[in-house]
TrEMBL record:
Protein name: Outer membrane protein assembly factor BamB
Record flagged with keyword Signal: yes
Record organism: Microbulbifer agarilyticus
Lineage: Bacteria, Pseudomonadati, Pseudomonadota, Gammaproteobacteria, Cellvibrionales
Highest taxon in the source lineage: Bacteria
GO CC list: cell outer membrane
Job description of the protein: Part of the outer membrane protein assembly complex, which is involved in assembly and insertion of beta-barrel proteins into the outer membrane.
UniProt keyword Signal, yes or no: yes
GO biological process: Gram-negative-bacterium-type cell outer membrane assembly; protein insertion into membrane
Length: 376
């Protein structure tokens, strides 16, 4: 398998004559009606963007658990940012942080998965897998489920780390660098695959419940046929939402995978849901809103083209996306117009934003972890 990063694909397709068209658009002044105000911030250490480590923090029991690529895992008080514990696993972390069942789980570039005690940071167990992990392990239903870059979904016993089941997927010749993080909900594992399919498995034994194609490869060149699902599926009520690169965004029944609606889209991030809409940041830098019930497009904001947006978050009653220069852009969910903007760092914000009650958490590639609240 040959893996490529999205940025590499874009740069390889651009010529010097096209430079003006491939530069990120310049930001223009906006009329702000809301503000994202910093509550606390701390630097946890660098995130390895070159190897596409997507170290999404985990939120649980009033704590936020974060990791850097040097091997440090730190637990902070959600409200104050005060450190609760810090552990160095002495490995270069590439996947995490999964939380639940009293443990925090991370993985390294060589496929070793490590579980730490949520209260103390002490190591509970570690397990060696066959492939590299660059996504967040899912924790729930007595299991830790990990997706590896070589096409495997693995179910590990949450108490011991022992492998309980395995699901293999045949990979396309060419894929993006990265894999989707699996999600456990109601005893079922939902996982997006590099072949453009979404699959549902029993969390306890790995038996397939259903699988559904999100994207169909198009064209004759291998690059044209890349249809990875790299963003985590989103489960809301009786529906599962997923989106692929060079494919579609879809709403499916969580029970049997039956499609409710599908619309053309291209992203390597997950979607957000709120205010009766599904929000998606496209690979070209545009932001879209779709009606949650029928998928009809509600609006498109094209003022952030080529700014390498991260995935959107629905926070309180606004939509927030981060970009390559460390800006957080706040959009009105009903119109898509900008209503606020703040800068938390000068490095990109690729890692998914986390909305939790009255706080929004953002982590830059430089390791700047910031908690923000919305003010009017």
């Amino acid at each position: 398998m040959l893996a490529v990063a999205l940025a590499a694909v874009i740069s390889a397709c651009a010529s010097n004559e096209e430079k003006e068209d491939t530069d990120p658009v310049e930001l223009t002044e906006i009329q702000e009606s809301v503000r994202l105000t910093e509550v606390w911030s701390t630097n946890i250490g660098d995130i390895d963007a070159l190897r596409y480590a997507m170290l999404t923090p985990g939120l649980i029991d009033g704590k936020i658990i974060a990791a850097n690529s040097d091997g440090d895992v730190v637990a902070l008080d959600r409200s104050t940012g005060k450190r609760v514990w810090k552990t160095d696993i002495e490995r270069s972390i590439s996947g995490g942080v999964g939380v639940g069942l009293g443990i925090a789980v991370v993985a390294d570039f060589r496929g070793r998965v490590v579980a730490l005690d949520l209260n103390t940071g002490e190591q509970r167990w570690d397990t060696q897998l066959s492939g590299e992990v660059v996504s967040t392990p899912a924790v729930g239903a007595g299991m830790v489920v990990v997706q590896t870059v070589d096409g495997k979904l693995l179910g590990l016993n949450a108490e011991t780390g022992a492998q309980t089941w395995r699901h293999n997927t045949a990979l396309p010749v060419l894929t993006l660098r990265g894999t989707a993080s699996p999600v456990i909900s109601g005893g079922v594992v939902f996982a997006g695959l590099d072949n453009g399919k979404l699959i549902a498995l029993s969390a306890t034994d790995g038996i397939t419940r259903w699988e559904q194609r999100v994207a169909i490869p198009q064209g004759t060149a291998e690059l044209e046929r890349v249809v990875d699902i790299d963003g985590a599926p989103l489960v809301r009520g009786e529906l599962v939402f997923a989106a692929s690169y060079q494919g579609r965004v879809v709403a499916l029944s969580r029970e049997d995978g039956r499609g409710l609606w599908a619309r053309d889209a291209s992203t390597n991030h997950g979607v957000a849901v709120g205010a009766g809409q599904v929000f998606l940041s496209d690979a070209d830098g545009s932001v879209h809103a779709y009606n949650v019930g029928n998928g009809q497009i509600q609006w498109t904001n094209s003022e952030l083209l080529r700014r390498q947006l991260g995935g959107p978050a629905y926070f309180v009653d606004v939509v927030v996306v981060g970009d390559l220069d460390g800006y957080l852009h706040v959009l009105d969910p009903t119109s898509g117009r900008f209503v606020g903007r703040t800068r938390i760092d000068r490095d990109p914000i690729r890692i998914p934003l986390l909305a939790d009650g009255n706080l929004l958490f953002a982590l830059s590639d430089d390791g700047e972890l910031v908690a923000l609240r919305l003010e009017r």
